[in-house]
Amino acid sequence: MSARNASAAKPNLLLALTEGPRTLLDVSVLYSWRWLPQQFLRGDGHGVLVIPGFLGGDGYNRMLTNFLCGLGYQAVGWGQGRNLGPRAELLDGMAQQVERLVEKTQGKISIVGHSLGGVYAREIARERPEFVRQVISLGSPINDDGRATTPSARLFRLLNGEPDTESSLRSTAPPVPITSVYTKADGVVAWQQALQYAGHEHCENIEVPGSHCGLTWNLSVNHLLADRLSQNDGEWRPFVRPEKFRFLFPDNRRDLQLLGLGG
């Protein structure tokens, strides 16, 4: 499958209808394993910008931001209110937030973006790669050419009109390390759309269990972020499923090989 073919994929209807209760399940799993982060790798104090998905805001991501701060990072939200789609003032505000965080931490930052927030994160890295250590997208529609027919996609077009960003540009990886996180149980974004196809040697696709809306409340995502963010700047390495917690990460090597993405 190519990025062009991925843009036509649709999430399963049953998964879409059960997003709400499955998100609550993700939250309950996270709380029941709240002791696990004590075993995660600690941070080096660099800045991390967390960008919410469509219709989300910093409040929705506060638990994730607090988790990252607890690991030792200077993690902040995007400070732009609710994410209703790309607008000139929003893009300017994000650019200013990035510059403030870079100045505050005196170094490159990492960016974590959920869903549409991951698309923004990649565009920031494309425009200002000198500011960005890495980008981690969570269920982001990086191969959606704007023709998706899901309720969230239709609402997005209603609020923002037809997208003017070419899918080929969005799907091409920015010149920084890229980790694309996806879940096959995604009821909002077809998981094939969240994969990095046009990549470089510092790109990877990591599968986690769980819902789309629960990706920022996801135990596997927490473990993955702790691992990815702990890397020294300029010393990126591919993610290795941890032996002790292999149950947190499905083995996706066969799927990626069938899609021509290695693995």
Describe this structure in words.
This protein is an alpha/beta fold and 263 residues long. Strands 2-1-3-4-5-6 form a six-stranded parallel beta sheet, sandwiched between helices. The chain is 36% helix and 12% strand. The chain has helices at 3-6, 13-17, 19-32, 62-70, 88-105, 116-127, 151-160, 167-171, 219-229, 253-258, and strands spanning 47-51, 74-77, 109-114, 132-138, 178-182, 203-207. Helix 6 links the parallel strand 3 (109-114) and strand 4 (132-138). The model is unreliable at 154-160 and 165-169 (pLDDT under 50). The protein has ten helices and six strands, in the order H-H-H-E-H-E-H-E-H-E-H-H-E-E-H-H.
Mean pLDDT metric = 87
Give me the Rg, rounded: 17 Å
N/C terminus separation: 15 Å
Number of helices: 10
Strand percentage, roughly? Answer: 5-15%
Q: How do the strands of the widest beta sheet line up side by side?
A: 2-1-3-4-5-6
Low-confidence stretches: 154-160, 165-169
Q: Residue share in helices?
A: 25-40%
- Element-by-element helix/strand order: HHHEHEHEHEHHEEHH
Q: How many E-type strands?
A: 6
Overall morphology: globular
Q: What is the structural class?
A: alpha/beta
Which sheet architecture does the biggest sheet show?
6 strands, parallel
Summarize the model shown.
This protein is an alpha/beta fold and 263 residues long.
Helix-strand layout with pairing:
Blueprint: H1 3-6, H2 13-17, H3 19-32, E1 47-51, H4 62-70, E2 74-77, H5 88-105, E3 109-114, H6 116-127, E4 132-138, H7 151-160, H8 167-171, E5 178-182, E6 203-207, H9 219-229, H10 253-258
Parallel strand pairs: 1-2, 1-3, 3-4, 4-5, 5-6
